[in-house]
Amino acid sequence: MNTAQALIDAVAFGAVYAVVAVGIGLVFGVMRLINFAYGELITAGGFTLWWLRNQPAPVAILACFAVVIALSLLMERLAFRPLRSASAATMLVATFAVSFLLQSIYLLIFGPRGNPVSTLAGLQTAVSLGKLHIRWITFVSLGTGLVLLLGTALVLERTTIGLHMRAAAADFRTSRLLGVRANRVIAFAFLISGFLAAAVSVLLTVEDQLVTPNYGVSVTILALVGVVVGGLDRLWTATLGGFAIGFANSFLSDELQGSRVYLPSVVFGAVILVLLLRPGGLFAGRRPPVERM
Amino acid sequence: MTRRRLEALLEFLGPAALLVLVALAGSLTSAAREIEFRNALVSAAIVIALYVFVGNSGVISFGHMSFVAVGAFLSGILTIEGQSKQFVLPGLFPFLKHATIGSWPSLALAAAVGGVYAFAVGLPLMRLSGLPAGIATFAVLGITYNVLRNWTRIGPGPLTLSLVPETTTVWTAAGGAVIVTGAAFLYQRSPAGRMLRATREDAGAARASGIDVYRQRLLAFTLSGALCGFAGGLLVHLLGSITTDQVYLELTFLTLAMLVIGGSGSLLGATVGGLLISGLNSFLGDAENGVQIGFRLKLPSGTSLVVLGAFMALVLILRPSGLTGGRELRLPRRRPPSATATSEGQALGHGSGGHV
Amino acid sequence: MAEPALAVESLEVRYGGVPAVRGLDLQIERGEFVGLIGPNGAGKSTTLLAIMGVVPPSAGDVRLFGRSLRDKRPEDVSRAGVALVPEGRHVFGGLSVEENLRLGLAGRRGRDGVGADFERIYELFPAVRESLHRSAGALSGGQQQQLAIARALLARPDVLLLDEPSLGLAPTVVESVFSVLKEIREQGVTILLVEQRAEVTIRAADRTHVLANGALRLSLAPGDADDTERLAAAYLS
């Protein structure tokens, strides 16, 4: 396939992964929690779109956002709030447990076979620009990704709650001493995080239409790897890491069509190498990373 | 025998007794149920092997199922009867294709290869801590899965490895689990084990007192890998078959959850976690077909996993340090503790044997 | 009779089994400037942290104008009208000076008068006004201390707690900090100052208490500032 085409597709993919990275990074920033169950939010979004497949697209999409955001806030309130002072290992395993629980609920309700989503199927049609055939979804992913990233940055930089979130991420204790409300800041992080997950689920289901109970798992794992490789300590390095891995995954899998069987090993090998050379993340500065665990 | 000696032995005997009890119960039930008990014992063996590294070092590894996988596949391939093997796995390396050994030797070999693989992986990786270590070990899991799934010279690739003799009886499983427990016990009581535990509490302070953190972690990682390989051998001879998907993500998360829920700081915790969750899993599965527990319980189909997931989440939320709180089995106190003793105990927190 | 601004009653705080504060009783009337000095590990910081709800007391109570602060979350204590300038200042190095100040507004009870308060801050701390858009991490120790106090004041607290503001600062800078504290006191804020530098504190405060080993040992008036014998006795008792 055309290298230019592969590049453009990879950038769009990277944009989506960057959004997932922000979703994960925001919660990590305020809570020091890696929410492994983030993927279940994406899956929930996918199932909502399937459930309302006979409704007009705007209705289905609105419902998708409502359901995912509600689920995100519920997760925080019921599962993660009680664990705020637990060890990092316990929190991580708790997120596994929540992820496992949700997947088994999806399995129970929707069954093991994939449910096809067709909400924005029209975006699969392609537009021709010279020699390139670019599908609409590629543009939409790119555009939406950019808007979401910019929007999040604006909220963080220009609003009071955003200021409180940035302060909480830097120094939670001192923030509370100044009057920043812990519960509110964390809930807001989960709100934005959920919003982003919903958007991702809408974009992903255009390409990958079959929603199974473990739909969001592989995206989350890959994004997580990207976030740590990019640098977990700051939001922008995490975002770059997410973008990088989404981009690399897509580009390499397009370019190395023939010998792609061992591609995962190559990518993982690169990840190990990066972590050995720069444990704080590829894009992190000279500052030594703060030990989390 | 001094009180201290007794308490030390209890650290091993407690878990070992649990395992034996489970085996006993298993041998007395019907053939259909017995496999669940064997399952629980092998699960416990895997979790204890995992604990040897994760519990003592405080570093999370997502890659340990790589060693279980290697042990399972190697030990399985070597025990398949010669003629069928040539037919079913024609692409294998000659030494794998033509050799056929007994189950116990294959377990020893599985342990050896698991250990060597762990050592090779640990050499670069044990410099890392925390999250980078977690992701790096996860990458190792990914590589192992990818290679095993595609390299047909060393295994069946994406196909199921079957025709493995099912030699893991309930007592073999118990015996194997007790061996793993014994190794874990001997390690954590050794100077090396104590040194590693010191790094778990405060790596900086440990380093300052002269402990070579890297070296101790590498040692534990290697031992843990060997034990995982051994447990993998038990696993494949329990199931009679194995696929790469069975030793990948789901097993990784399940064993980690079992460890943390049981209490990741102690051998007892690892044992309890493995036996309990596995047992619960089996029980809930049976409940979907209807069980008699004083009254008849029948769960709607598919809900067993939901109940299991909810149980695990609840335990973690209500008791974040796990069911055992990371403590080993203790002798009951003979006299009421004095005020200073309690406050010291509180200040020291959890750990094995009271020495840290 | 009006309730004291801040009343600490039989306060006990333990870390694990080790008591850091034992049976501390302290009453501060509205508008008073009280100092708390003592050797390292005496429990001074712990007392302030217990008042703010960061560390839970194992016994005793803390009252703000008669209302108990016990078991309140730090952000709620802040919103009730108590501000802490923590030891080591803890300014947000990655944020600008202005953003640091805006964070101080989080503890405010009402949204009115913000502009006027900012003006007062700029008068008290000209260095802060000059560096509004710089990153807080780029400021000197003394400037950061001023920022930390300014930030706390923007919450319009009734009671201002300070934990060792002179730490790491040159004597001239310490002088300016203390003169600012006196001005703040003039504006009606009740001050509890925890300090290592005994002399400066005793001179500036209405009364100073010595805390050693978790309990109050001695009370000193500004006139006792030169009485080194009494001071030494208190520290060493």
What structural class is derived from the secondary structure elements of chain B?
mainly alpha
Number of strands of chain B: 2
- The percent range for helix content of chain B is 55-70%
Shape of chain B: globular
Strand content of chain B: under 5%
Structural class of chain C: alpha/beta
Q: How many helical elements of chain C?
A: 9
Q: Per DSSP, what share of the residues of chain C sits in E-state strands of 2 or more residues? A: 25-35%
Major sheet description of chain C:
6 strands, mixed
Uncertain stretches of chain B = 337-356
Biggest β-sheet: strands ordered side by side in the sheet of chain B: 1-2
One letter per element, helices H and strands E, the order of chain B comes to HHHHHHHHHHHHHEEHH
Shape of chain C: globular
Please sum up the structure shown.
With 356 residues, chain B is an all-alpha fold.
Description:
The complex is a heterotrimer of chains A (293), B (356) and C (237). With 293 residues, chain A is mainly alpha-helical. Helices cover 70% and strands 4% of the residues of chain A. Chain A contains 11 helices and 4 strands. Chain A has helices at residues 3-31, 38-51, 57-80, 88-110, 136-158, 160-170, 172-177, 182-207, 217-230, 235-255, 263-277; strands at 115-116, 126-129, 132-135, 210-211. In chain A, the strands form 2 sheets. A two-stranded antiparallel sheet of chain A has the order 1-4. In chain A, strands 2-3 form a two-stranded antiparallel ribbon. In chain A, helix 1 runs antiparallel to helix 8, helix 1 crosses helix 9 and helix 1 packs antiparallel against helix 10 (235-255). Chain A is globular. Mean pLDDT of chain A is 88; it is low at 288-293. Chain B is mainly alpha-helical. In chain B, a hairpin with a 1-residue loop joins strand 1 and strand 2 (295-297). In chain B, helix 2 (31-57) crosses helix 12, helix 3 packs antiparallel against helix 6 and helix 9 (191-201) crosses helix 11. Chain B is globular, with a radius of gyration of 21 Å. The two termini of chain B are 23 Å apart. Chain C is α/β, with parallel strands linked by helices and 237 residues long. Helix content of chain C is 36%, strand content 26%. In chain C, the strands form 2 sheets. Chain C has a 6-stranded mixed β-sheet with strand order 6-7-8-3-9-10, with helices on both faces. Chain C has a 4-stranded antiparallel β-sheet with strand order 2-1-4-5, covered by helices on one side. The longest helix of chain C is centred in the C-terminal third of the chain and has 16 residues, at 171-186. In chain C, 44% of the residues are buried. The model of chain C has no long low-confidence stretch (mean pLDDT 88). The chains are: A mainly alpha (293), B mainly alpha (356), C alpha/beta (237).
